[in-house]
Amino acid sequence: MAVGGAGRVVPPSGGPGPELRVLTYHRFGDGHRAPFTVSAAQFEREVAYLAASGRAVSLADVEAFVAGKRQLPSGSVLVTFDDGDPSVRTVAVPILQKYAVPSVAYILAGRPTGFDLMSFSQIREIQAAGVSIGSHTVSHRSLGSLSRAEAMAELVDSRRRLEDEMGTAVHSFAYPFGTAKDMTPQVIDCVGEAGYTTGFSSLHGAIRADTARQPYALPRVKVESGDPQWLFPALCAGAMDRWRLVDDMLTNLQKPAESQLQKTAA
Predict the structure, then answer these.
(1) Does residue 212 belong to any structural domain of this protein?
(2) pLDDT per residue over 175-192, tens digit each?
(3) C-alpha dihedral over 130, 212, 170, 88, to 10 degrees?
(4) Which of 30, 42, 122, 218 is deepest in the core (most CB within 10 A)?
(5) Cβ-contact 173, 155 below 8 angstroms
(6) Which residue range is the domain that position 224 belongs to?
(7) Of 96-100, 101-105, 232-236, where does mean pLDDT reach its minimum?
């Protein structure tokens, strides 16, 4: 196995060819050592690769594929952002516009402690710039730790608030933390009942015809700062898919509180 940036071990790829992958970013900036704070230079290099390779697809493309309404080229990639950090607007969006690469931002509809977030007017700016908007709950609590009523409130209230502010329908969702503990069968049922058509986890993997039959438990691949230049094309081609085995093994060890350190560790 090869070693990636920040000491990430890259399991060997293999198995049937995947249809597409969804990448997760959080925030952007220079001079940070936090694994989820990606430099502008790294992000531009990665977006340029997606544009040059013809891999980039939109949320609408992925939703149509998941619904069985269209096929996508093997190796297609969707760019996503979680939370709603202001650096998405100031750093990421100009780069995306430069290379005409689509993306989706999963927004926290509330103002939970510990997060630096865009205002709704700023979110409308990135929407006008071509970024699709999805929900990431109101409070960034693990839905798996809540009662069914509380989970439904997080899902419904965040969607309604974003739709009111954005003026468009919101029908895609990303789970806070996104581990197996955060998306229990009860929670997955709630996502469908709340009116979403897709739900994205933080579990590694590719979306294929078989995973597309589970539209509320779709995998994504995390992109970290400091990854070597060779790793990004490799993970787009499936190098990190087998990290799902590690995700599954670590499920019982992962605690939502670990991911609350958004500004320093994630």
Answers:
(1) yes
(2) 999 999 999 999 999 999
(3) -40
(4) 218
(5) yes
(6) 17-257
(7) 232-236
What does the pLDDT read at residue 264?
A: 35
This prediction has a pTM of: 0.87
What residues does 104 pair with on adjacent strands? 80, 132
Residue 44, amino acid: E
119-174: pLDDT as tens digits: 999 999 999 999 999 999 999 999 999 999 999 999 999 999 999 999 999 999 99
Residue type, 101: V
> What are the CB-based long-range contacts (under 8 Å, 24+) for 189-194?
190/143, 190/148, 190/151, 190/152, 190/155, 191/155, 191/216, 192/216, 193/152, 194/152, 194/155, 194/156, 194/159
Q: Can you tell me the distance from the alpha carbon of 29 to that of 176, in angstroms, rounded to the nearest whole number?
A: 22
| Residue 259 pLDDT exceeds 50 | no
**What whole-number distance in Å separates Cα of residue 82 and Cα of residue 37?**
12
> What confidence tens digit (pLDDT) does each residue in 217-244 have?
999 999 999 888 999 999 999 888 876 6
d(CA 233, CA 218): 21
Alpha-carbon span 220 to 200, nearest angstrom: 7
Please give the tally of structural domains in the chain.
1
